[in-house]
Amino acid sequence: MDTVAITTTRKCFNVDRQFPPPGSEEEKKAFHEIQQHFSKQYEIIFPDKLAPRTVVILPSFSLDQDILSKINGAVYYEERLLCLLMLLRMPLTKVIYITSMPVSESIVDYYLHLLPGITGHHARQRLTMLSCYDASAKPLTQKVLERPRLIERIRQAIPDLEAAHLTCFNITSLEKTLAVRLDIPLFGTDPDKFYEGSKSGGRKNFRESGVDFPDGFEDLSTKADVIRSLAALKIKYPALRKAVVKMNDGFSGDGNAVYTYPVVDTGNGLEKTIEASFSQHFNTVAKDVNEQLFFEKFQQMQGIVEEFLEGDIKMSPSVQCVISPSKQVEVASTHDQLLGGDDGQIFLGAIFPADEVYSVSLAGEGRKIAQTLAARGALGRFAIDFISVKQADDSWKHYAIEINLRKGGTTHPFLMLQFLTDGKYNADTGEYLTAGGNRRFYFASDNVSSEQYKGLTPEDLMDLAIFHDLMYDSAAQEGVMFHLVGALSEFGKLGLVCVGSSPGKAKAYYDKTLRILDMECS
Fold this sequence. Notes:
The protein is of the alpha+beta class. The protein folds into four domains: 2-187, no CATH class; 201-210 and 312-431, D-amino Acid Aminotransferase, Chain A, domain 1, CATH 3.30.470.20; 215-307, no CATH class; 440-522, TATA-Binding Protein, CATH 3.30.310. The chain has 18 helices and 22 strands. Strands 12, 13, 14, 15, 16, 17, 20, 21 and 22 form a nine-stranded antiparallel beta sheet that branches. Strands 7-11-8-9-10 form a five-stranded antiparallel beta sheet, with helices on both faces. Strand 14 (329-340) and strand 15 form a beta hairpin. Helix 9 crosses helix 14 and helix 10 crosses helix 11. The chain is globular.
């Protein structure tokens, strides 16, 4: 057992607190026992807006750090979950938010200003912001675990462990260890079930769910496996022009690569032909990840090869679902994703809801997969990505391409809208209605960036937004909400959620914001 001894002249923490070793059977047993209490919280506390509770928010990107480091301003992605400060609209809810580096007070004030029906002062008294003061390239959760005094501060800030839970961006063994050390449950899938949400596990779940998905191969480990799979796909589909290679735990497309087939004979010797010219036709999505690094990571994570879906008209929608402790499935939202990069592999933003011509059928396919995952023990909020191709008869065929058993790029925009309007998405109609029965739409992006924006502070951005009437209007329930604001000054990058009463109006807010930023910074 690891013993943590903590003493201080200011406050005496538990001196002899003992924890099971990370990854041990004792820790697994302790975690399972803690998770058993979450069902009661979900059933009794979650629906009651006046119930006292504490939500510990840990926006750690516990992903491969070599891949994550290729994303500009990656540490500021911890600000994505500041949308959960909207939980403070419930008057007896306490929020503890932990980050690598301190979040600017002006950014916190901005979110508290958005709260409906609660003063900023009232909310601030129930908010505890904690920081590791560590900007190094390590997962935030690892930084917290390296600071036992910080863990004790978190525990001391929780008035009732029986009414507290931990919510994270994604859940790994690190988050599992922290949950045990805090003695509070996690709202998410046990990391022992990580495989179910991996690229390989996803393909198997699609198969079991009876949904369409690209032809291909999973559980591959080496470059040789990839070459064999590429050859097999080309033999099966001689007209195939491209294939996608994906690491099991890639993020935002940066664990992907695209192989473009040369003009070759699909007869004997195809595998050797592909091998001989492989590097000329293989392109990683993350430009700073070369072929050698890609396959080093691929061998560690394993991965898949699948056909690149073609179509004259195709979209990249996603379905966001929530699985309760009792295995009930809710389709929370649908989005049309905005993808960029040379082959459309990088997530840039999203349009909500997904196009009305296919959103209902899309939600139905997502529900099938969510039910399979629920039976396998998945829990919490997650997303399923699709490629939807328009058919000759004007119908749409939805191909499931991956499962993200975590929060993602469509999570925070939707939660912001839901918290601010107290509305709900109806998967049977494809409509989002506010509490007042009004339809709402948004256009959101995590990747609004320009060299010209560098040097803009959070305070500068708020000044511009107020002067140019860009701030979200709670009375009209329309306008612009900003996120990733901390990345603006250093990287010239921020995120926007533009809400409107029609898709056109939401996009108009987005265009207006970019136009004003460009004008003010030119």
